[in-house]
Each structure stands twice: as C-alpha cells, then as structure tokens.
Amino acid sequence: MSKKQYDGVQVLLHWLVALLILTAFGLAWTMADMPLSPAKFKIISWHKWAGITVLGLVTIRLIWLKLKGAPAADPSLPTWQRKLSTGVHHLLYLLMFAMPLSGWLMSSAKGFPVVYLGLWKLPDLIAKNEALSETFKDGHYLFATALLIFIGLHIAAALKHHFIDKDAILSRMIPFLRKDK
Hints:
CATH architecture: Up-down Bundle
Order of helices and strands: HHHEEH
CATH superfamily: Cytochrome Bc1 Complex, Chain C
Helix content: 55-70%
CATH class: Mainly Alpha
Strand order of the largest sheet: 1-2
Distance between the termini: 22 Å
Number of strands: 2
Oligomer: single chain
Largest sheet: 2 strands, antiparallel
CATH topology: Cytochrome Bc1 Complex, Chain C
Shape: elongated
Low-confidence stretches: none
C-alpha cells in the first residue's frame, strides 16, 4: 500500500516509543552510579516498565505498519539513500526488540522478576543463572550503544532532509510541518 504520509496512529506510536526510549535511557544513566537502595530499586522498576512498554508498542507498530503500510520512499532520492534508510529502520526495529528482551532475560537470569507497573509479574524467560545474566547484561549494553548510534543517524538524516534538502520527509512524522494543510 502506497501513501504519502504516516497516519495518526503511526505518528503517535512513533513519538510514544521515542519518548519511552529516551525515558529508559535517562533512568539507566540515573541508576548507573547509585548505591543499592530503595530509590535505586524504584528507578530500576521504572526502567523495566519503560522497556516492556516499548516492546509492546513496537509490536503494535509493526502490526499496524503491516496493516496500513508506510509512505513510499521519495523516488527522487538516490538508491543508496533509500537502501540505507530501509536498513537503518530495520536495525532500529530489531534493536527496539532486542533491548527490552535482553533486559528481561537479564532480570530473569539474575532472579529478579519483572513486575509490570508493580501489578503483573511477567514470566521469567529463563531460570536463574548468574553467569548467563552477565552475558545478557553485556548484550543489553551493546544493544543500548547500537540503538543510540542508530537513533543518532535517524535524527541526523531527518534533520538533513528538513534543513538541507528541504524535502517533506520529516513532515511525515511531524504533521505540523506539512505544507499541504
């Protein structure tokens, strides 16, 4: 299905996920150097809630994308830019799954359950295994680094399209920038 703009649900999900990812990173950086305390455990819980919510919303985004489609790539873009954009988007989706899943696996392996919003205990994905928890911790850190890099590329490309190329790419996710109102 070809269209010119993302629909309202796609735009809302994009920005909700972006906000939650930013929140999860902020919480991670806040708790990183905190001593063990009730305050740190609270921040860890909030971090987990943000991650699990991202996992759910990204799943909904992909289902909605499959149902509604995405705007066609601008045919005036060079082929390499279209391919790079597609690759970066695929990697972003992969990382938006890998990050929360690796965190959930790390929690399970450490023997600390994920209790979503303090209400629902999610199932442990694996049995407690301290050595494996370190592997998932390393993976979570690696995925976080990669996610930051690809988010940076995503933002840089959007800004380049808006300010240098002066095309309508960014307006597909920021409706108030659209000139065809």
